[in-house]
Amino acid sequence: MSSAPTASTIAPRPPVPHLGVASRFLRIVAWASFVLNTFIIGTGGAVRLTGSGLGCPNWPLCAPGSLVPTEELTYHSLIEFGNRTISGPLLISAILVFVLTWRLRASRRDLFAIASVVLGLVVLQALIGGVIVWLHLNANLVGIHYVISLALVCITAAYLTRMYEMGGPRERVVPKGFAILTHVTTLAMAVTVIFGVLTTGSGPHSGDSTIQRDGIDAVLMSHIHAWPGYIAFALTLALLVWAAARRLRPLRWIIALFAALIVQIAIGIYQARAGLPPFAVGVHMVLAALTAAAMTVVVLRLKRPAAAPAAAIEVE
Question: Where are the transmembrane segments (predicted)?
């Protein structure tokens, strides 16, 4: 048996470290980056679920010779153009976070690394979006586009989590078995997301009425998608019971994760039985990203800054 620092009760969050003269602004733009990356999943879902994927048939222009929708185009163009418009503020927020974090790179290499990844993925997303239009909504690229957006929500959530903690070395504050179970749960959720993307790719919401999907049966895929979801739910329940019994640091976020999974499963069952209504599918897509973000925070709270005050507890 070895001991590692944790608290007999949930440890209070350490004070916000000194982030320089732009600390308040940095926190604002970091939250803006997270919100915008979540919001664009909703607008992107609206594009696909309303059949507006080719509402702007060109990229980077919306129509030949015009950056914005023309009178000849339909309301689908407005939906697609609205989604593209979100990309501007999203890119600006990623750049601002990167620039402000650059000043802290010597003391907060973790934040600088995360900010660099976010900026790179945002730029990559814009390029992939253009290629998707050029290739007339290729199903595989659309799936990749969503997965990257979901990853961006998780990574920006990780930035927020680390931003409110001190930098430097970190130490595990939960039993080793609990940490292993958490990572296994993360894997189950990742598999659920991947099969969810494949299920959507074989379903009726192709993004444009002229596009026909060929592939695996959507009903079969929905069942395959459900099983890892149920496994993730059961594993999360085990984490919740364990964390509550030992008053472990990730408890509050495990409660949030568990609640999100309950809602996700309920929506998933409803949309499957109701014939995949677009609004329910869209909510399911956004909640998947938020659920994955909650899982990310749970993983990060397995450790805390080594400099933080702590009590000792037996670790298995």
Answer: 28-49, 86-104, 111-137, 143-161, 173-198, 227-244, 251-272, 278-300
Tokens of 263: 């809602």
Contact assessment for residue 291 and residue 41, using Cβ atoms and an 8 Å cutoff: no
Segments in 164-250 forming alpha helices (H): 176-201, 218-246
pLDDT tens figures, 103-114: 888 888 999 999
- Collapsing DSSP to helix, strand or coil, 68 comes out as coil
Q: Could you tell me whether strands 170-172 and 311-315 are parallel, antiparallel, or unpaired per DSSP bridges?
A: unpaired
Structure tokens at 258: 């568990």
Question: Which tokens sit at 237?
Answer: 């329940």
39's tokens: 């919001």
Residues whose CB falls within 8 Å of the CB of residue 83, separated by 6 or more in sequence, listed in order = 40, 43, 44, 46, 47
Rounded distance, CA 52 to CA 207, Å? Answer: 6
Query: For the chain, which residues make up each domain, given as ranges?
Result: 2-15+22-315
Which three-class secondary structure string do you get for 92-147?
Answer: HHHHHHHHHHHCCCCCCHHHHHHHHHHHHHHHHHHHHHHHHHHCCCCHHHHHHHHH
Cα separation of 119 and 161, whole Å? 18
User: Could you report the per-residue pLDDT of 76-115, keeping only the tens digit for each?
Assistant: 677 777 778 888 999 999 999 999 999 888 888 999 999 9
**For residue 12, cis peptide bond before it (omega within 30 degrees of 0):** no
How far are the Cα atoms of 71, 194, 234, 304, 316 from residue 184, in angstroms, in the given order?
Answer: 52, 15, 11, 20, 17
Helices (H) and strands (E) in the chain, counts: 8, 4
Tokens matching residue 29: 């733009």
Q: How far apart are CA 249 and CA 297, in angstroms?
A: 11
Identity of the residue numbered 12: P
Longest dimension (CA), the chain: 73
